[in-house]
Amino acid sequence: MTIRKATVLGGGVMGSQIAALLVNAGLKVKLLDIAIDEKDPNKISKKAYEIITDKKRPQLFDLNFASNLTYGNFDEDLQGEDDADIYIEAVKEELEIKHSVWKKVKEVAKDNALFATNTSGIPIEYIAKVFNDDERKRFFGMHFFNPPRIMKLVEIIPLQDTAEESVKRAQLFAEDKLGKGVVVANDVPGFVANRVGTQTMNDIMHRAEEEGISISDTDALTGRSIGRPSTGTYGLSDLVGIDIAVTVTKGLQQVPGEEKFFNDTKIAEKLVEQSALGRKTKKGFYKKEKNKILVFDPEKNDYVEQSKPEFPILGKFSKDLKENMDVIFNADDKAGLFLWKTLRNNFYYSALNVPKAASDYRDIDRALVWGFNWKKGPFQLWDLMGFSRVKDRMKEELGELPEWIEKRTESFYKDGETIERVTPVSDFIESEIWNREDSRLSVVNTDQLLLKLQSGNNIISDGFAKDLIEAVDLLESEDFSSMVLYADGRNFSVGANLYMMKKAHEMKQVEELVGPAIDTLHKSFNRMKYSLKPIVTAVQGKALGGGCELVLHSPFVVAASETYIGMVEAGVGLLPSGGGLAEMSDRILSTNHKHDDKQQSMSEVLTNIGMAKVSTNAYEAKRYGYLRDTDSIILNVEKRVEAALNKARLESEMNYIPKPEGKYIALGRDFKALAEGMLDAQRLGNFISDHDYEITLKIAEVLSGGDIPRNTYVNQRYLQKLEKERFLNLLQNEKTYARISHMLETGKPLRN
Questions:
Q1: For the residues 525-532, what does the mean pLDDT come to?
Q2: At what angle do helices 716-731 and 498-506 cross, to 10 degrees?
Q3: CA 153 – CA 561 distance, rounded (Å)
Q4: Where is the 3-hydroxyacyl-CoA dehydrogenase C-terminal domain (predicted)?
Q5: pLDDT for residue 290
Q6: What is the pLDDT of residues 530-572, one digit of tens each?
């Protein structure tokens, strides 16, 4: 049965966010809570609805989706017969309240409806006491991680008698419809992620206190160098909430057999007593004061400035986790041994929880990667450090290991194996045409091409632009049906090579070094846009600057819902040079709607690009004009390449008609004059600087078609020429050079 309608029980922080997630996924959702006011029985759920649909900070991808969300209360809306396919309960963590709600739900629910609780602390079996045998078959825990829209992990916790079909339905729903990564967990305290994640955080804090390692020093050691969030252990606890970590720890200390793995942490308990619970109370282990981040000093019972960590081992770490694991394994200094014990203890506790918390060790890795934002899970890191030598050393130091580890003689993962449940891209590849520094071109599904952007940081390099031209030439000249372009990593592409721009300015060779690269970029993007066969780009994360322009020129796009697209060149004193301005003009000027206000549409484009605006999701990218109605949006980012291949196949089989090179009437001097007036007002009001004015006016000149009368015909190549001229002019400006230098040095924009 397809899940199309859902009822969310509880309009608190988690309930409202789960409701928003379901609406974003295309479901019709009813959000219910208790009636506390006879005159306004929907007071609580209505407040949640207003937060979800807030115009300034909506939780929905598109406010038009709000028509699929209704609100009500438990008394009036849980009567008669209800048609929800799934009920997700997220009420207060009190058993009596949960029982009360579920008693009402089961009286109105249809016979095949699924029942799910989002509890994180109460055993699922306890909540299930209100259900009969048949109802228990459809009941399970469905633990979303906060915030549900962003966090990938969903833990499904079945009862002993939950039907396998119910678990399967819930898993497919969470993965395919909501785009989540599912871990099936056992009904043990903390389930999987919180259980293992909290244990290692507790272990680190306890040993840091014992060994006299400060809060900031501990975080410097236990962050990116071991594949964990850059916040480090204490910083992450601040983010999650110190009280939550302490509560989970105290709870697990009461579980027989677990108490030896969970120790009291004096500093955390001291902060909880002082109601310093982390970011939600604006102070915890850290506190932001003006422009400084202060750290808590337990001896002074106050916040002090952080001192720079001086551990020599930190200088030996790189971005390569495998190398870091080797450094740690061979270390014999205080910091190195601290890190070895951190990893060793995590490996050991993770192994103990198979099959106690999860039946598959991969699910423990999935839980920590998807729920705690680790780059690699415990067993993946164990492999990186060396399965056999780690096992031998652990046995020597800890004694007997779990039986399944004692029997195991090979690494946990085979080469190329990942924790993802989707078909890996490598499985689609049948043969390789080339594997170069900036791109890799392969044949998939017999007659499709797959082009991977793989330059450093996925920048749109000159080498990639040339490879793209060659790939399109091959697509058109050989017996291939279509092509898909994609990139690995969190972000699709964050633009061009700023270092090259800076160097060209310093060498005073902007025209010679950058000019030809722009010509190549224009040629490559045009080849893609006007290709005789369909090309689909699969995009995720950030697609900025040149990355955005590549997306703009793709005939079709499959975008993950959490895709952030924008032309941000103004932030570094430049304007888009890859044809982005010309393409946006093309999209506006080539429309023939009689009532379409092209001048207004162009003004919005000018504002967005001049202010370096980036869409907050793929649906907003459509509203900005960066994506079109013909582009597809999916919630499961891991399926983007597969979806793009399917879309490319469909287009190739449906009489694909290439985009014709057209001409259109420019807005000319009229639009430029309008832009000048708008920018003058902003400059006089001190909203923009003189350099902002200059940059944005040059953008307006390109969008208007230059110094020509309105109603003059122009084409895309002409507008690209205007782009190039103004880009090169700005790159020779000292204020632009200052912006580029500042961005490269600090990662932040300079407003000068």
A1: 97
A2: 60
A3: 16
A4: 190-287
A5: 85
A6: 999 999 999 999 999 999 999 999 999 999 999 999 999 999 9
Closest CA to 233 of 261, 214, 249: 214
- List, in sequence order, every beta strand (DSSP E) within 66-158: 69-73, 86-89, 114-117, 139-144, 153-158
Beta bridge partners of 663: 715
Phi-psi map region of 290: left, alpha, beta (phi>0 left; psi -120 to 50 alpha): left
Average pLDDT over residues 355-366: 98
pLDDT at 596: 66
List the strands of the sheet with 292-297, edge to edge: 286-289, 292-297, 302-304
Side-chain-facing half-sphere of 339: CA atoms under 13 Å: 31
- For residue 615 the two structure tokens come to 């869409």
Contact residues for 278 (Cβ-Cβ < 8 A; gap 6+): 237, 238, 239, 240, 241, 242, 284, 285
By the 8 A CB rule, do 633 and 65 touch? no
Which amino acid, residue 145?
F
Look at residues 640, 614, 637, 487 and name the one whose alpha carbon lies nearest to residue 548.
614
**Centroid of chain to Cα 366:** 16
Distance CA 318, CA 227 (A): 11
Distance CA 545, CA 461 (A): 12
Token output for 346: 């995590």
Other Cβ atoms less than 10 A from the Cβ of 737: the count is 18
Closest Cα to residue 129, out of 99, 104, 157? 99
Neighbours of 719 (CB within 10 A): 25
pTM over 0.90: yes
CA angle 431, 434, 440 (to 5 degrees): 95
Q: Quick one: residue 703, left, alpha or beta (phi over 0 = left, psi -120 to 50 = alpha)?
A: alpha
Tokens 């279509």 belong to 482
Sign of CA dihedral 569, 571, 574, 575: positive
